[in-house]
């Protein structure tokens, strides 16, 4: 059944707020019905979908996010690996099952408004500068609240396909505590702001991402499982995840981390192309973070002008991860509850992530003659007390300015690996993406 019984023409000019009308249409749609969103521009805040529903965007239908945080009521959710109170997304699939979002429509988050709030038009000011001046880099990403575009939370049997997401204020598409999710032919573009991840797969199982095109300002497709003590408390791993046949055009590639406290396992990444991106296949964590990443298979990657084909840093971005202790913060009764959640640490014996049983093969990474940015073939850095183990690279060809670093890696096998480099390592590239 296709529901078109409301007067959408009254609110499709992108100026009249359409939230209530669309929410009523969602609520009134019968079980296993389809709600058609006709062509037009709809200015909306948070919308909440229900189970057994299909939302179909007509070609040319566009949801435009309101640039007022009040339009997105705060909900209990998870952001960057920590359970906190945070604004809802534009489209919210929370505690639902059997939901489809489909059609050649668009969600536009009006990102520049939110990006300027965070770091200013010059990317050096805004709220970020104020927090940096107080040595609070570790909390600012949580404090400056910005809406996501689609949140799938504690849901199962979800399909999202053919839609375009652009200019997200924060993460574009977040999948948390979910099972059986299929993301197909989704385009993510024009998202060049802070924390504008593409697709975040967080503590979820049996997720397939395929045939997507992504150009982001941060990690393009990323797998997570919780940050530090809060992630350890929740203890829900990410597992049985497949990512295939996608194109990456900017951002930090296909990523595991950095919030991996509950572990990541049984991942298959294959048939991905990368063009002008910062990273190819990336893994990152922090000294204070634990978790085990294991049984990851990566095959048939093609990279052109990628700065770091393999960036696996287990002590990534210390400034972002260096935070005040919970004991110190709890002494001040004015400390926000969210700060305490973010500051929670793992047991010391569980800290430092372990990477093991990673198999990578059939990768070609080349540089065009006019490529001028830094490039480093390998950057694999762990801790001597918790080295990466059983790592295999097979049938690999890489062109790069530098070879890079391999630190604390045991049982490393290079089989038919050819690397062409032009110069010695530049220390300036030792701490990539520490913004």
From TrEMBL:
A GO BP entry is: carbohydrate metabolic process
Q: Which GO terms describe its molecular function?
A: polygalacturonase activity
**Keywords on record:** Glycosidase, Hydrolase
What Pfam families does the record tag this protein with? Answer: Glyco_hydro_28
Q: Which Enzyme Commission number(s) are listed?
A: 3.2.1.15
Which InterPro entries does the annotation name?
Answer: GH28_Enzymes, Glyco_hydro_28, PbH1, Pectin_lyas_fold, Pectin_lyase_fold/virulence
The first-level EC class reads hydrolase
Q: Which family does it belong to?
A: Belongs to the glycosyl hydrolase 28 family.
What this protein is called in its record is: Glycosyl hydrolase family protein
């Amino acid at each position: 059944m296709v529901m078109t019984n409301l007067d959408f023409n009254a609110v499709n000019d992108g100026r009249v707020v359409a939230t209530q009308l669309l929410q009523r249409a969602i609520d009134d749609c019968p079980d296993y019905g389809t709600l058609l969103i006709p062509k037009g521009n709809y200015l909306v805040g948070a919308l909440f979908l229900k189970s057994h529903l299909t939302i179909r965007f007509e070609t040319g239908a566009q949801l435009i996010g309101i640039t007022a945080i009040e339009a997105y009521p705060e909900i209990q959710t998870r952001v960057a690996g920590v359970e906190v109170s945070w604004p809802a997304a534009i489209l919210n699939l929370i505690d639902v099952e059997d939901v489809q979002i489909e059609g050649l429509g668009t969600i536009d988050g009006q990102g520049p408004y939110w990006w300027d709030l965070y770091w200013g038009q010059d990317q050096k000011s805004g709220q970020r500068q104020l927090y940096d001046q107080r040595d609070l880099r570790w909390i600012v990403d949580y404090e400056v609240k910005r809406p996501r575009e689609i949140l799938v939370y504690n849901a199962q049997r979800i399909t999202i396909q053919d839609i375009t997401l652009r200019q997200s204020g924060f993460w574009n598409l977040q999948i948390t505590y979910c099972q059986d999710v299929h993301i197909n032919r989704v385009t993510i573009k024009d998202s060049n702001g802070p924390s504008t991840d593409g697709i975040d797969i967080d503590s979820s199982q049996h997720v397939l991402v395929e045939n997507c095109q992504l150009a982001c300002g941060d990690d393009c497709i990323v797998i997570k499982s919780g940050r530090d003590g809060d992630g350890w408390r929740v203890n829900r791993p990410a597992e049985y995840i497949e990512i295939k046949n996608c194109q990456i055009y900017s951002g930090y590639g296909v990523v595991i981390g950095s919030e991996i406290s509950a572990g990541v396992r049984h991942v298959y990444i294959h048939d991905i192309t990368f063009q002008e991106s910062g990273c190819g296949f990336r893994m990152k964590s922090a000294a204070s973070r634990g978790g085990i990443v294991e049984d990851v298979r990566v095959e048939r990657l093609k990279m052109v002008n990628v700065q770091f084909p393999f960036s696996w840093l287990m002590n990534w971005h210390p400034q972002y991860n260096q935070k005040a202790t919970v004991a110190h913060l709890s002494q001040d009764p004015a400390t926000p509850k969210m700060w305490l959640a973010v500051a929670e640490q793992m047991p010391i014996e569980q800290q430092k992530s372990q990477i093991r049983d990673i198999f990578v093969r059939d990768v070609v990474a080349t540089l065009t003659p006019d490529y001028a940015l830094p490039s480093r073939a390998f950057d694999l850095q762990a801790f001597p007390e918790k080295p990466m183990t059983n790592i295999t690279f097979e049938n690999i060809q890489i062109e790069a300015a530098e070879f890079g670093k391999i630190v604390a890696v045991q049982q490393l096998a290079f089989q038919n690996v050819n690397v062409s480099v032009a110069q010695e390592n530049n220390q300036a590239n030792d701490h990539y993406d520490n913004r």
